[in-house]
Amino acid sequence: MMSVQDDIKKSINEVYESRTKKSKETAAIAEKYIPSGDTRAFSYFPPYPIYGDEGEGCYLIDNDGNRYIDFLNCMTAGIYGHAHPVIVKAQIAQVKKGIAHALPCDSQYQLAKIICDRVPSVEKVRFTNTGSEADLFAMRVARAYTGRDIILKMDGGYHGSSEYAQVNEIPDIFTSNPPQAYISSKGVPDVILQNMRVVDFMDLDAAEEVMKAEGKKIAAIIVEPVMGAGCGGEGSYEYLHGLRDLCDKYGALLIFDEVISFRFSMGGKQKLVDVQPDMTTFGKLIGGGMPIGAIGGRADVMRLFDPRVEGYVNQSGTFTGNALSMTSGVAAMQLLSEQELKRIDSLAAKLAETVNKKIKDLGINAYAEALGSMMAIYGTREKIENSRMAIKAMVNNGEFLRFLHLELLNNGLVCLSRGMFSLSLPMDDKIIKEAGGIICNALEVVASLCVE
Ligand SMILES: Cc1ncc(COP(=O)(O)O)c(C=O)c1O
To answer: Do 230 and 160 share a structural domain?
Structure first.
């Protein structure tokens, strides 16, 4: 006999499949040519993801013509909304002149200048095609600068897809507490572990212990000041200053990965907490929707990227600094202002308040938290401080989050399947009110799937 919970899941699945027939067909074809029918691990979800290539402001439209309020937001890169006219105009003008020429171009230094002007710790910038590459090169230059090999990272800290970044990319939730360094992805050799150390995010004592034991061998501490990709946890003022002090004491570099948290203020999260890292990595929003990454930092460290310097650090790439990404970034970055960022932060806070009120009424084991202009719904009441806690809650309450996500899709709202919502500039009070209503209704539908 089917339980009430089975009925709910069945009915959500049926509605999903009936609304997304074309996506289902595309998924079947795509799977013949692409493993999982989709080209990245994070965007797949069962039974199949929605397919589409159309967006308009803060809406996404799928192949079946369904329109969604877009909180997926191209994994936070889409802060400007889709097809912003100012960005589109700049992109078209550049496309007409060619996209990538393998020449340095004016828009490279223009975008670099915008970043330097906004982020006090950044004196020089180098571009990459992705945030992953930016993190890879930041770690490489830190090693070159210090002449040391070991990098200390946080359990569950996400720094893209390079070999080093695969160390505890998924937190070590099942094996040990405190976390041990391990490799999250198959195919990465164990030898990588020799040069990586891992501690919990927000555990300054653990970081200090590692530094006491091996500080003279540590090239850098790399940390997301807000564990956006790692599913939550905002670095406190004391913690981030504590990491700065540890790096100063032991002669290591501090790298802030602000690939997501650059949306927290015009100068990133570092400006809000008044910490000056030695290096910062950027990505996502700095390209105005085009693929991009950047490494910024102290001039004396960045100097090592200069090919005129003996023993320079090799950093290159066919599409690196291509004119289209650069032009698009320059146009897009002018659209940001402190006021606009604060406005969408406050929309995220309002949304979380609405959702929390509903969760309280339903009495379920969950809560919502606004993180700048993002919001997460966790399948726990426990305050999430690090990635390990977030993933544990996600595993424990997997069915609840999975069907909440599908139910939201069924009602015209798309977010990241793990319950992460990212806001964009075209959103306003009206849209947030509508979204709040959709989320509250969906919570009511899936409440009985939420476990303690
Ligand atoms: C904090 C953080 N660092 C690095 C990256 C990697 O950036 P990309 O996906 O552009 O390689 C991401 C991507 O989600 C990220 O969130």
So the answer is: yes
Residues 67 and 212 in one domain: no
pTM over 0.90, yes/no: yes
User: Of the residues 257, 269, 271, 345, which is catalytic?
Assistant: 257
Q: Respond yes or no: is residue 257 known to be catalytic.
A: yes
Atom of ligand 1 nearest to the CA of 133: 11
Which atom from ligand 1 is nearest to the alpha carbon of 160?
A: 6
Pair 21, 91 in one domain: no
Under DSSP, the state recorded for 312 is P
What is the per-residue pLDDT for 237? 97
164 tagged catalytic: no
223 with 297, same domain: the answer is yes
CA of 84 relative to ligand 1 center, distance in Å = 23
Total tally of structural domains belonging to the chain: 2
- 116-121 long-range contacts (CB < 8 A, ≥24 apart) are 116/296, 118/266, 118/267, 119/267, 119/268, 119/270, 119/271, 119/280, 119/296, 120/267, 120/271, 120/276, 121/270, 121/276, 121/277, 121/278, 121/280, 121/296, 121/297, 121/298
Indicate if 64 belongs to the active site: no
pLDDT in tens, 333-380: 999 999 999 999 999 999 999 999 999 999 999 999 999 999 999 999
Site to substitute for ligand 1 among 128, 136, 260, 281, most atoms within 8 A of C-beta: 260
